[in-house]
Amino acid sequence: MTRLETGTPAPSFTLTSDKGATVSLGDFSGRKLIIFFYPAAMTPGCTKEACDFRDSLEPLRAAGYDIVGISPDSPAKLAQFVTKESLTYPLLSDESKETLEAYGAYGEKKLYGKTVVGVIRSTFVVDEEGKIEVARYNVKATGHVASLKKALGLSE
After folding, report:
1. Rounded-to-10 torsion of CA 138, 141, 142, 143
2. Tens-place pLDDT, residues 20-49
3. Cα(first)–Cα(last) distance of the chain, in Å?
4. How distant, in Å, are the alpha carbons of 13, 46, 84, 140, 152 from that of 51?
5. Catalytic residue among 15, 33, 46, 50
6. CB-side exposure of 114: number of CA atoms within 13 Å?
7. Which residues contact 124 (CB under 8 A, 6 or more apart)?
8. SS3 string of 41-108?
9. 53 near 69, Cβ under 8 Å?
10. 89 phi/psi in degrees, rounded to 5
11. DSSP helix/strand/coil, 28
12. Which regions of the chain are under pLDDT 70?
């Protein structure tokens, strides 16, 4: 399984957003981008993580970061999630799991002590030149955004 490291080029993608728009990595060229991969919209852990990013959006944007969330959910389910949780950044649908696999965010993982295949909750920071600045795999939904902000020097 691919594991991305600091300094490697971020795999490009073109995915459909919760609004039905096409969004590509190249759309963020010249900006810093936080990409978080999560298993499923409207589940407890994923809701916590998505809302933590929503609640931290202002300081992240002020520091020059854009945010997108990616899951294998359909655009329609993502639209419901955005509305239900008042999310203010794009969620992208990767139903084919090609982008998840390219980032190493899909594969074997432990779930309740069993080995299963699925989305590995992961977060990446892509710099202005499209290179991986931070790669974190198997992150916890709770407290993850605060930890990321601290690593980026954005702690309160």
Report:
1. 60
2. 999 999 999 999 999 999 999 999 999 999
3. 36
4. 24, 8, 11, 14, 19
5. 46
6. 4
7. 4, 10, 34, 35, 36, 103, 132, 134, 135, 136
8. CCCHHHHHHHHHHHHCHHHHHHCCEEEEEEECCCHHHHHHHHHHHCCCCCEEECCCCHHHHHCCCEEE
9. yes
10. -145, 160
11. helix
12. 1, 156
Instruction: Specify the DSSP element, H or E, that contains 151.
Output: helix 144-151
Three-class secondary structure of residue 1 per DSSP: coil
Q: Supply the pLDDT for residue 1.
A: 63
State phi, psi for 50 to the nearest 5 degrees.
-60, -40
**How far apart, in whole angstroms, are the C-alpha atoms of residue 23 and residue 15?**
5
SS3 149: helix
Structural contact between residues 37 and 71, judged by C-beta atoms closer than 8 angstroms: yes
Indicate the residue type of 146. Answer: A
51 belongs to the catalytic site: no
User: What single letter denotes the amino acid at residue 108?
Assistant: E
